[in-house]
Design brief:
globular
C-alpha cells in the first residue's frame, strides 16, 4: 500500500466519521466539525487521485469539496463571528 493510498483511506475515514456522527446525533450539519471532516475527506481523496487517477472519482470529490465549502460559507453568512 502506497502513501497516497493511506492518505486516501484517511479521507474515507473522515467522510465516514462525519456521516456516522451525524446519524448517531453526535454531530449536526451546522457544526464546523461536519464541514471540516467532509472537506478534509475530499481533499485527501483528491490527493490520492493524483497518484492513481480516476476521472469519475475526481469529478465527485471536486464537487463534494465545492459544495462543502459553499454550504459552510452559506451557513456562516449573517452569523456573528465566534
Amino acid at each position: 500500500m502506497s502513501f497516497a493510498d493511506i492518505v486516501g483511506l484517511i479521507g474515507v475515514a473522515a467522510y465516514l466519521s462525519a456521516y456516522g456522527l451525524l446519524q448517531l446525533g453526535r454531530l449536526k450539519v451546522e457544526e464546523r466539525a461536519y464541514a471540516l471532516l467532509n472537506g478534509l475527506g475530499a481533499l485527501l481523496i483528491l490527493y490520492s487521485l493524483i497518484y492513481d487517477f480516476n476521472l469519475p472519482s475526481f469529478v465527485t470529490q471536486s464537487f463534494w469539496l465545492f459544495f462543502t465549502v459553499l454550504g459552510y460559507w452559506r451557513s456562516r453568512a449573517g452569523r456573528p463571528a465566534r
